[in-house]
Every structure is written in structure tokens, then in C-alpha cells.
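Page 42, continued from yesterday. The earlier attempt failed because a stray header line got pasted into the input along with the sequence. Redoing it now with the clean sequence only.
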Amino acid sequence: MCPAGPAVSDEDLVRATLAGRQEAFGELVERYQSRLVNFLFRIVRNADEAHDLAQEVFVKVYQALDRFDPRYRFSTWIFRVAQNAAIDLVRRRRYRMVPLGPQDDGGEDARPERELPANDPGAEAGLVERETAGQVREAITRLPWEYRELILLRHYGELSYDEIAEAKGMPLGTVKNKLFRARQMLRGLLGGEDPRRVTV
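This time it went through. C-alpha cells are written below.
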């Protein structure tokens, strides 16, 4: 029977998959699919291609699963595979990193904004929040890659500081310092707004 439940680690699911329990890999896909798509979209800037690329990453990971080193976290491995795949795609197609507008995120909010109902402060607040999030995303694209990459891993890949340090082969203190510097740079690009107080 396949391991199940929140106490089961990614590494346990890898071992179960290698033992022939294919449903265990399905659990890994469920755990990482939305995070991978979100992360990949911020690099390739195209929602359809981010979904396609995520599926390619899962295939690559599955095919190489017997080479996974259990001394490391599965999360850092799969995001490293995803990042390499995304960068290869960007290089192949010579994509230009186009800043996102407030509604240009490839999701349902990409449609034109409806007219706000009169005297609806809740709707107006929602629009302001989306516009602010769009400004943050645009500012992230203007960061040097070494800082943008860490912001993407932290806020879109949802990796912990330890996981980022492992994925990048950096000391934990270096990761924290670079992320602190990246947030300072974002604050400057946003005119003093603290990016930790808005959704990235």
C-alpha cells in the first residue's frame, strides 16, 4: 500500500515509487504541480508554456528518479531541474523578460477589469491590491538575475531558506543576506514600499 498522509516525506514517496508503487509519484506531482507552474511562469512569462514545462519536468524527474541522492531534499532537486529547463527554454527561444502589467498574469485576472460597482469599497480595495501585486511583479523582473532567482525560489517556489541554500550550494547566511538585499532593492524600485507587506 502506498504511503499516505501529511507525515510521509517526499523522500519516502520517492522510495515507494522506486519500489513500484506508481501512485506515490502521483502524490509528488500533486504536492509540487501548482508551485512548479507558478515558479516556471515567472521565468518563461507564458502560462501555457509554464504548464507544459512543468509536465516535462515531472517526466525528467521520473526518468531520473533512480539517480536521486537521498542525502538531499527532493524539493531542491525538482526545482533545480525546473529552473534549468526554464532557462534552456528562454535561451532557445530568446525570450525577453517582459514586465507584467497588473492584469497580465496569465490567469483569470488577465481579462479586462470590469467596471467597479458604485460605492463598493471592497471591490476598489481588491483592484488596488491587484495593481500593487502587479507593480511588485514588474519590479522583480528588473532585479539582477542573482537576486531575482532567489526571490522566485522563495516567494513563488515557496522554498525555505535551507532549501534554497541547498539548491544553490550557498551558505545559509549568504542566502539570507542576498534575500535581504533583494528586498531592499525591491523597496527602492517600489518607491519605499516594503515588499514584504504586499503579495509577490
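Notes: Residues 95-128, 195-200 have pLDDT under 50 and may be disordered.
Reminder to self: strip header lines before submitting.
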